[in-house]
Amino acid sequence: MKLDSKYFDKIRVKPGEERTVRDKHPNCEWPGCTRPGRHKAPKGRNQEGQFHAFCLEHVQQYNKTYNYFDGMKDDAVRDYQKEAQTGHRPTWKLGQNSSTMNSAGRRAKPGSFRDPFNLLGEGEESKRAGTSARPVRNAELKALHTLGLDEKATKEKVRAQYKTLVKRLHPDANNGSRANEDTLKAVIQAYDYLRSTGFC
Ligand SMILES: [Zn+2]
């Protein structure tokens, strides 16, 4: 008699045991698949702790297309991705003064590095038009000195110098060292002041 393997398996397993085996490994949940679902796959966001059961082939296929963000709100996704980008490190920030009003009366966002390079693009070009004739105030002169400039500096020169200094002093350019933090803070405050007075 030829041994049909299906029949052979069946007669070797007692009814009780057969049932136990099936409970332990439900069939693969992939549509149309009848292999045992030995591999668990997370169901996804908001269903944490719940799993699909798949065979090896289908768990791999599922994992390839599995989207953790399914069902997440957009802002939650954005926050998560933002955190992922910074590696969940605290972002570098200036000292405590960074959250106080700056000289222009704008509230600096705490923990953020304020727009050092593109200079806001608020149409500042025309701001100082016609102001070069007025005398330079003492506080402006002091701010210019902080930037390594003198009263003859043009607004373009001030901006260029500011960009250069920020680049040079920023921790990102110094392997994360904050040794220049006080200098950088002074440079930013000086520049903020010169902007607030319309000097640049
Ligand atoms: Zn399967």
How does this model look, in words?
This protein is mainly alpha-helical. Among the domains are: 16-88, no CATH class; 138-196, Helix Hairpins (Orthogonal Bundle), CATH 1.10.287.110. It has helices spanning 5-12, 15-24, 56-65, 74-85, 138-146, 155-169, 181-196; strands at residues 39-42, 51-54. It has a two-stranded antiparallel ribbon. The termini are far apart. The model is unreliable at 1-5, 7-13, 16-22, 95-112 and 122-131 (pLDDT under 50). It binds zinc ion (ZN).
In summary, what is this structure?
This protein has 200 residues and is mainly α. It contains 7 helices and 2 strands.
Describe how the helices and strands are arranged:
Blueprint (H helix, E strand, L loop, with lengths): L4 H8 L2 H10 L14 E4 L8 E4 L1 H10 L8 H12 L52 H9 L8 H15 L11 H16 L4
Antiparallel strand pairs: 1-2
Helix pairs in contact: 5-7, 6-7
Q: Poorly predicted ranges (pLDDT <50, ≥5 residues)?
A: 1-5, 7-13, 16-22, 95-112, 122-131
Query: Which radius of gyration do the C-alpha atoms yield?
Result: 33 Å
Please estimate the helix content: 40-55%
Question: What's the overall geometry?
Answer: rod-shaped
How many individual helices?
Answer: 7
Strand residue percentage: under 5%
Report the bound ligands by name, code or SMILES.
Answer: zinc ion
Strand order of the largest sheet: 1-2
For the termini, the CA-CA separation is 99 Å
Largest sheet: 2 strands, antiparallel
Mean pLDDT: 70
Following the backbone from N to C, one meets helices and strands in this order, namely HHEEHHHHH
What's the count of strands? 2
